[in-house]
């Protein structure tokens, strides 16, 4: 069983001053998983993602990727090992086209980003791969327009494309459809559902319909602690979850 | 080449994707126009070759800053340090050991590049204002060293007594500046081509990524420190060549090559020309030199005021400097003709 | 030893001066994320206001000082309202270029209006001598700076700590977005903070003349010092700025006295060493 766990945390803690935003979180993500992380606002979901990706350092605890301890490994090296994220608030390159941004991510994978001699226009393998990826997400001509000119929904999609360009083994999605109309939101999640089986996905999402439709298992985070874990059915019936969500109605 | 449909009008294909990068790297008309005019100026203004040479050398210096500031979005307020190191290296070499101009050029590039590589190890670890402060400090330290190390640099009096031998053993630097012009033109043009190659490489794309959103870069697996260190080193080496060229063509080095004013004026020239497109640096340097000449004719003491004002106006209006204005004007005219 | 203590005193006085000039900058950088390289220009303005009032109109020193603060505050707010305000949410490169343009303009402008020759001012007689107490011996003016500056600093720290205005400023430094969503009028808050910072800068400039002199290149000369203070102290941290100002003042004076050739280098060396260990400054918050 453990052989199939790609990402694992053990007693993860993080505090800001006296505030403990992550408390003793032990979490396992198996190969090919489609797991959701839910919880009321301020439960520490984004903090948890930031700890996993190395944007924040834990006060204590361990993080393991493919069984290797990565607790002190810098963000970019985690990405190179296959732990990739998207951002809740668009964190893109406004004046680059999606095509250029995607080529950048692929060029990095190919070790080209410190090469000042190679012609970018000659990097056919990278360009073709980037185009193919964008094409799969139906970017069309939008792939060749500056990112800041694109519709918001397209920009959300680009977040995911850029993450995929890094060839993740584990994909962490921080509210991938935040602020997107329901119709487009469904498209985003269908695209995610169609990802290859060897990518494990953990996503944060507020829309419970989406969560129950796409997640195999759900982890509920409240006040920095794991309240409970289980299949969508188990979570839906969990009395404490109902209480938490009824107490904080806006998230349901 | 395959016909390229206008963006947004038709579906993108592998062909259009590849064509985008070809288009990005293509020579723009303002680049061609600049270099043709620069070459032609040899015949048009034979009486002003010395000034034109100096403006072009400043241009190379501005281009070196553009790599850092315009492409990677990293301010360097002490860039004169590397210009000065290149100048003093070439100058001291020519005074005490060996006056071959090409040797001086290479030495200037190497020493300035080395200094840049060392500084980059500090600068690449910092962000924002801390970065700005450290580069400012590097400039001031270099100035102080040159100022105090009188026996080596001539201190406040400047460095004199350079013995520059004829170029390639054949062409003596003349008082009209003909050889100086041709020599500088060729060196600067070659380095411009190299800089062009650099910004159109995957590394150049990474620099733009740093400028556009440095926070996203680690999420693509790019730690950016290696890129920043390399960019800083290359930029310093280019600035060093510019300094060496100035020393060799004027056969004198004033302490002010290292001054804060020079670091600032190169910034201003870059903003005037337009950032992040290389040729803006060359054009800005020419414009700045001409403007300084004209303004100081009107009032030598206070011309800085107008230069500062121009900088403020350019930033406030967001015009993108001369190249930005040119590009928009041409686009507008082209659109009108199409209609 | 006695020597050393006296030099220390001079260093502290210099540090207080730096704190007055940099305090406002630290708050505005921390709170508005606005890199105002022209902050030193406000100090210069304060300095020249004191010079003008005293030398042209015969005002007393202590009459001219408040005017330096007021004049700098008015000028600061004017520029803030008309220009800086539009750049608060913009990128830092634009802010840097914009304010360096303003520095260039003010340096040339000051040369035009007041000339390049450093003016002299006469402080009241009781500040011109020295104060002896045992082996302690310090210039009266320096002692005055330490006492006066110390009182101002205490007022600032207490004000930030215990008034609601201070609480708002601290909240804005911590998290701009949150402060806006709490219904605080952040626009007015910024303006007030900017006015106070400018007033302090102007006051600092007025106080600086007697100690370090004044000429049109003042904003450029002190730019690096101000940045060192703000960066080392950690942007937005008043305590950090105070600690960094005092440390820089003392290091500078001590260094220049004992190892005149290395004076400036020591400061840069220490600064770089600190930043290598703590890139966000001594009192800065980690991360972004």
Quickly count the helices of chain C.
Answer: 12
Number of domains of chain C: 1
> Count the helices of chain B. How many?
14
CATH class of chain C: Mainly Alpha
The termini of chain B sit apart by 26 Å
The shape of chain C, in one word, is globular
Low-confidence stretches of chain B: 1-9
Mean pLDDT of chain B: 87
Distance separating the two termini of chain C: 44 Å
Biggest interface reads:
A-B, 59 and 43 residues
Task: Explain the overall architecture.
- The complex is a heterotrimer of chains A (252), B (339) and C (288).
- Chain A is an alpha/beta fold and 252 residues long.
- The longest helix of chain A has 14 residues, at 152-165.
- In chain A, the strands form two sheets. A six-stranded mixed beta sheet of chain A has the order 6-7-8-3-9-10, sandwiched between helices. In chain A, strands 2-1-4-5 form a four-stranded antiparallel beta sheet, with helices on one face.
- Chain A contains nine helices and ten strands.
- In chain A, α3 packs across α4 (124-136) and α3 (98-109) packs parallel to α5 (152-165).
- Helix content of chain A is 35%, strand content 25%.
- In chain A, α6 (182-193) links the parallel β7 (170-174) and β8 (200-204).
- The longest helix of chain B has 26 residues, at 225-250.
- Chain B is globular.
- The radius of gyration of chain C is 19 Å and the shape is globular.
- Chain C has a two-stranded antiparallel ribbon with strand order 1-2.
- Helices cover 74% and strands 3% of the residues of chain C.
- Chain C has 288 residues and is mainly α.
- Chain C contains twelve helices and two strands.
- Chains in contact: A-B, B-C.
- At the A-B interface, α2, α3, α4 and α5 of A face α1, α9 and α10 of B.
Brief digest:
Chain A is α/β, with parallel strands linked by helices and 252 residues long. Chain A has helices at residues 45-53, 75-80, 98-109, 124-136, 152-165, 182-193, 208-214, 232-237, 239-247, and strands at residues 5-16, 19-30, 34-38, 60-65, 68-69, 83-85, 170-174, 200-204, 217-222, 225-230.
Please name the defining characteristics of this protein:
heterotrimer; A: 252 residues; alpha/beta; 6-stranded mixed beta sheet; 4-stranded antiparallel beta sheet; 9 helices; B: 339 residues; mainly alpha; 72% helix; 0% strand; disordered N terminus
């Amino acid at each position: 069983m453990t052989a199939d766990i790609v990402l694992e945390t053990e007693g993860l803690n993080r505090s800001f001053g006296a505030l403990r935003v992550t408390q003793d979180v032990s979490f396992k993500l198996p190969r090919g998983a489609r797991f959701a992380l839910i919880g009321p606002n301020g439960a520490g979901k984004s903090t948890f993602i930031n700890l996993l990706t190395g944007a924040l350092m834990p006060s204590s605890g361990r993080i393991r990727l493919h069984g290797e301890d990565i607790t002190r490994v810098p963000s970019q090296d985690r990405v190179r090992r296959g732990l990739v994220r998207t951002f809740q608030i668009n964190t893109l390159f406004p004046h680059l086209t999606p095509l250029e941004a995607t080529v950048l991510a692929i060029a990095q994978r190919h070790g080209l980003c410190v090469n000042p001699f190679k012609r970018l226009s000659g990097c056919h393998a990278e360009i073709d791969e980037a185009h193919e990826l964008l094409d799969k997400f139906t970017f069309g001509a939008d792939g060749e327009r500056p990112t800041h000119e694109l519709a918001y929904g397209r920009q959300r999609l680009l977040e995911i494309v850029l993450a995929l360009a890094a060839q993740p083994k584990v994909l962490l999605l921080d509210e991938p459809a935040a602020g997107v109309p329901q119709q487009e939101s469904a498209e985003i999640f269908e695209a995610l559902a169609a990802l290859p089986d060897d990518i494990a996905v953990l996503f944060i999402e507020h829309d419970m319909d989406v969560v129950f439709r796409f997640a195999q298992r759900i982890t509920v985070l409240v006040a920095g602690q794991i309240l409970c874990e289980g299949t969508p059915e188990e979570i839906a019936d969990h009395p404490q979850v109902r209480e938490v969500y009824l107490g904080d109605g806006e998230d349901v | 080449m395959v016909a390229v449909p206008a963006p947004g009008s038709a579906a993108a294909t592998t062909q259009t994707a590849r064509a985008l990068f070809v288009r990005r790297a293509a020579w723009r008309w303002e680049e061609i126009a600049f270099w043709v005019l620069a070459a032609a100026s040899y015949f048009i203004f034979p009486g002003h070759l010395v000034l034109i040479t100096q403006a072009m050398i400043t241009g190379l210096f501005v281009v070196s800053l553009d790599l850092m500031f315009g492409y990677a979005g990293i301010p360097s307020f002490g860039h004169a340090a590397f210009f000065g190191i290149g100048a003093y290296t070439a100058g001291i070499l020519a005074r005490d050991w060996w006056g071959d101009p090409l040797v001086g050029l290479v030495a200037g590039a190497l020493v300035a590049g080395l200094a840049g590589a060392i500084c980059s190890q500090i600068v690449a670890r910092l962000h924002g204002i801390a970065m700005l402060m450290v580069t400012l400090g590097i400039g001031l330290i270099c100035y102080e060293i040159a100022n105090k190390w009188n026996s080596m640099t001539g201190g406040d009096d400047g460095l004199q007594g350079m013995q520059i031998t004829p170029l390639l053993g054949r062409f003596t630097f003349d008082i009209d500046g003909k050889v100086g012009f041709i020599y500088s033109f060729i060196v600067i043009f070659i380095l411009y081509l190299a800089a062009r190659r650099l910004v159109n490489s995957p590394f150049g794309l990474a620099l733009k990524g740093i400028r556009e959103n440095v926070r996203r870069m680690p999420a693509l697996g790019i730690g950016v420190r290696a890129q920043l260190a390399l960019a800083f080193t290359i930029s310093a080496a280019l600035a060093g060549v510019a300094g060496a060229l100035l020393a060799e063509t004027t056969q004198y080095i004033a302490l002010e090559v290292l001054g804060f004013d020079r670091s600032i004026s190169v910034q201003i020239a870059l903003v005037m020309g337009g950032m992040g497109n290389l040729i803006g640096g060359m054009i800005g340097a020419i414009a700045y030199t001409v403007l300084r000449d004209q303004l100081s004719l009107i009032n030598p003491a206070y011309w800085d005021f107008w230069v500062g004002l121009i900088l403020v106006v350019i930033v406030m209006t967001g015009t993108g400097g001369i190249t930005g204005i040119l590009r928009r004007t041409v686009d507008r005219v082209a659109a009108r003709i199409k209609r | 030893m006695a020597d050393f203590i006296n030099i220390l005193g001079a260093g502290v006085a210099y540090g207080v001066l730096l704190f007055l000039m940099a305090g406002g900058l630290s708050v505005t950088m921390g709170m508005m994320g606005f890199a105002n390289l022209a902050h030193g220009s406000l100090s210069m303005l304060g300095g020249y206001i004191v010079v003008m009032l005293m030398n042209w109109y015969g005002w007393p020193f202590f009459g001219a000082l408040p005017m330096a603060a007021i004049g700098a505050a008015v000028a600061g707010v004017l520029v803030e309202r008309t220009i800086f305000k539009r750049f608060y949410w913009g990128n830092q490169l634009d802010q840097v270029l914009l304010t360096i343009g303003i520095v260039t303009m003010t340096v040339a402008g000051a040369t035009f209006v007041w000339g390049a020759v450093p003016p002299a001012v006469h402080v009241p007689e009781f500040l011109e001598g020295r104060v002896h107490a045992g082996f302690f011996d310090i210039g009266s003016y320096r002692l005055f700076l330490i006492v006066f500056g110390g009182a101002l600093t205490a007022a600032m720290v207490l004000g930030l700590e215990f008034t609601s205005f201070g609480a708002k400023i601290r909240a804005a430094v911590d998290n701009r977005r949150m402060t806006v969503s709490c219904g605080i009028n952040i626009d007015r808050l910024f303006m007030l903070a900017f006015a106070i910072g400018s007033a302090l800068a102007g006051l600092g400039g007025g106080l600086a003349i007697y100690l370090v002199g004044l000429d049109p290149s003042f904003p450029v000369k002190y730019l690096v010092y101000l940045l060192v203070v703000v960066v080392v102290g950690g942007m937005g941290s008043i305590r950090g700025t105070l600690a960094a100002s005092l440390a820089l003042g003392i290091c500078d004076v001590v260094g220049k006295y004992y190892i005149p050739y290395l004076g400036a280098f020591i400061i840069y060396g220490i600064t770089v060493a600190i930043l290598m260990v703590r890139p966000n400054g001594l009192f800065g918050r980690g991360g972004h």
